[in-house]
Design brief:
Keywords: ATP-binding, Cell membrane, Membrane, Nucleotide-binding, Translocase, Transport. Belongs to the ABC transporter superfamily. Spermidine/putrescine importer (TC 3.A.1.11.1) family. The protein is of the alpha+beta class. The protein is built from 8 helices and 20 strands. It has a 6-stranded mixed sheet with strand order 6-7-8-3-9-10, with helices on both faces. A 5-stranded antiparallel sheet has the order 13-12-11-14-20, with no helix packed on it. The chain has a 5-stranded antiparallel sheet with strand order 15-19-16-17-18, with no helix packed on it. The longest helix has 18 residues.
């Protein structure tokens, strides 16, 4: 029996015309419990999610939050305890992995060591008895996309980690799957190569136009490549949105802390007027921020502000219209492009400030120095309002 997914609408980009109209992947009311020593262990508690055609979608979260389980349910290696999974609008719950037309790439490349690049990439097509000329054409095309043209005769052991990962990618993409699932594929590479491959992966995904679902616990990686990110925590999606939305407007304390560095400060709403709120920090200082009129005066509020939005001053600034918080520098760390300060604020919490090294060295504040931090109202963001 074929069941229709509950909704087809998605704000995500659409690619392949034939498949347009349905999300590439959809979870409807999915729950997944594992049985461990006779007890049900919830891995995914409740999942309703639509991933668009041609979207680069990341599942991001700490170890054990349910990312891999979610991905394995797309591939068919795990079945939901409740709910349904749809691919291109077709109910695939209970359908065997090899009948789903999705491929996976792992951190371990799992290449055939005795086969060369050409044979590794052509392997699946040959098993499907695709015509030799068609195999040659498709393999040539995909090797060009992953920048391995000219390396057809090499064996995996004669290649670098990054090159081997490209072979694995080519092999997974050559048969044009409905979706490619990538489970921490760059985890084995060193930092520099990993960053290069992030840019490459995004380019490759754009060129092939296939839906990518990427599992990672590395927030930088997810921010760099994704069209949208689902931040998972304890078997639930805590926030779903574009990298910018997730970074600039974290919906919870967990997301604010997990994605990049966040400064959090407690205060009380003094008043809200014309969409601008004034927050009393209890130290004689205040934060200005956009707030809806529905937020009542007297309400306790937690404010988040990112370290790169803050200006650090060595003398009291004249800053009408800005938030101003003073404190004492407790740590100064030079990072080449920026100097990172930790400031123990008068209002109680420690603030981290990233100061671009665009000015002279003598302008650097030192440990123990009293400083003033300012930032614009739009860079304060209320948590949970
Ligand atoms: N086969 C299994 N049997 C029992 N429990 C499992 C099984 N696989 C995963 N779990 C549990 O389910 C939860 C989610 O695991 P999952 O592997 O999906 O998390 P993850 O976010 O991918 O973590 P990681 O980043 O460490 O891979 C964890 O609590 C885990 O211990």
């Amino acid at each position: 029996m074929t069941t229709s997914p509950p909704h087809h609408a998605t704000s995500a980009p659409t690619g392949d015309g034939q498949r347009a109209g349905h999300p590439a992947i959809e979870f409807a009311g999915v729950r997944k419990d594992y049985l461990s020593h006779g007890e049900a262990v919830p891995a995914v508690k409740s999942l309703d999610l639509a991933i668009g055609q041609g979207e680069f979608f990341s599942l991001l979260g700490p170890s054990g939050c349910g990312k891999t389980t979610t991905m394995r349910m797309i591939a068919g290696f795990e079945e939901p305890t409740a709910g349904k999974v749809f691919l291109d609008g077709q109910d695939v719950t209970g359908v065997a992995p090899n009948k789903r037309d999705v491929n996976m790439v792992f951190q371990s490349y799992a290449l055939f060591p005795h086969l060369n690049v050409l044979q590794n990439v052509a392997f699946g097509l040959e098993r499907k008895k695709v015509a030799k000329s068609e195999i040659r054409r498709r393999v040539g095309e995909i090797l060009e996309i992953v920048s391995l043209t000219g390396m057809e005769k090499r064996q995996p052991k004669e290649m670098s980690g990054g090159q081997q990962q490209r072979v694995a990618l080519a092999r997974a993409l050559v048969n044009h799957p409905r979706a490619l699932l990538l489970d921490e594929p760059l985890g084995a590479l060193d930092l520099k190569l990993r960053q290069q491959m992030q840019v490459e992966l995004k380019r490759i995904q754009r060129e092939v136009g296939i839906t990518f679902v990427y599992v990672t616990h590395d927030q930088g990686e997810a921010l760099t490549m994704s069209d949208r990110i689902a931040v998972m925590n304890g078997g639930l999606i805590e926030q779903l949105g574009s990298p910018r939305a997730i970074y600039e407007r974290p919906a919870s304390r967990f997301v604010a802390g997990f994605i990049g560095t966040s400064n959090l400060i407690d205060g009380q709403v003094s008043w809200v007027e014309n969409g601008l709120g004034v927050i009393d920090l209890g130290s004689g200082e205040r934060v200005l921020m956009p707030l809806p009129a529905s937020v009542a005066a007297g309400r306790a509020i937690e404010v988040s502000v990112r370290p790169e939005k803050i200006d650090l001053h060595r003398s009291a600034p004249h800053a009408p219209g800005l938030s101003v918080v003073s404190g004492t520098v407790s740590e100064v760390v030079y990072h080449g492009t920026s100097t990172n300060y930790t400031v123990a604020t008068t209002a109680g919490s420690d603030f981290v400030v990233f100061d671009q090294n665009a000015h002279d060295a003598e302008d650097v504040a030192s440990r123990g120095e009293r400083v003033f931090l300012t930032w614009a109202p739009q860079h304060s963001y209320p948590i949970g309002v």
